[in-house]
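user: can you give me the structure for this one chain? tokens are fine.
assistant: on it. calling the predictor now.
[tool input]
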Amino acid sequence: MEERTVLFGKYEVGKLLGKGTFAKVYHGRQIATNESVAIKVISKDQVRKEGMMEQIKREIEVMRLVRHPNIVELKEVMATKTKIFFVMEYVRGGELFAKVAKGKLKEDQARKYFQQLISAVDFCHSRGVSHRDLKPENLLLDENEDLKISDFGLSALPEQLRNDGLLHTQCGTPAYVTFLRGKGVRSVS
């Protein structure tokens, strides 16, 4: 019989869904309701070593601030001595990137995704939040084919603006930043 991992008596941890530089994301299940969730697990030691603890705190603050139908919902944050756990809405449909990689989207479908993206970005901006890493891999699709923005790890808040109203930090995914720079877009975000 397979041994299961249970977090804080509340969530059963399942299969690995993906991993990034500082975190792994697992499928999970809330035991009391049987609801599927995504659980992002972050190593405190690695984050401290890289000097990223403020960034993690900012990500939590931002995700609590931006509750919108087209943004992945942060349900709960928990921690142990060695790990931080983000319990989030589980988005079943995968990345928009995978859908686009299969071929051209139909115009009405592309328009729907664009309108949902603009609605969510406008909502973020109305609260002073800049995502700073929007790309097809961070745009998820739910079971109803609705778009959800994920990964606010590089986001910024108004207090990070300088006197000229700009954020003077380079960020984003290198392949996309290089592409945009080649199109004449400034690298100051």
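assistant: here you go. The helical segments are 44-49, 53-65, 96-101, 107-126, 174-182. Residues 176-180 have pLDDT under 50 and may be disordered.
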